[in-house]
Amino acid sequence: MSASDIKQAIEAATEYLSQHPADARSTDSAAMASLVEGLVVRITGPDDASVTTDMVPSVGGTATAPSPGWLLRAAVASCVATLIAMRAATLEITLDALEVVVDSVSDDRGILGIDAAVPAGPLSTRIAIRVVGADADPVTLDEIAKWAVVHCPVSEALERSIPIAIEVTTD
Length: 171
Prior knowledge:
By secondary structure, the protein is α+β, with helices and mostly antiparallel strands. The protein has five helices and five strands, in the order H-E-E-E-H-E-H-E-H-H. The strands form two sheets. It has a three-stranded antiparallel beta sheet with strand order 1-2-3, with no helix packed on it. Strands 4-5 form a two-stranded antiparallel ribbon.
């Protein structure tokens, strides 16, 4: 889609959902993970979407695929980049370059259950954004980048406590 097409799609969605707020809430598509072998897991979703994960050898994996933690960082990076492109299109700003790097600091004692005081997930996350647009000033590009992080559902979910329901079947 062109930037103009993206802008029109966003404007149409915004207009519709503003007039029909009850239609804005929906159940997101499910991801189903199945153990393949060892620590290799295949995740499937709608429209034949799939991805495989593995862990590093130090915890019993074979490192044949990205880890789930890397996919989390990849999800943040791609979501933020997408939101920057959407916002730029809405503001009719042409982006000449866009790169989003996401890294994090973790303590492996948490994932291994060695110390209950250590979280299993990242202790901190960093989002580094490089955005260039010849027809936009640096302040506007900075505002677009920060807007994208705030509105990205993946990064936003990492910043807020979300209730998780756990259902286990053992048959």
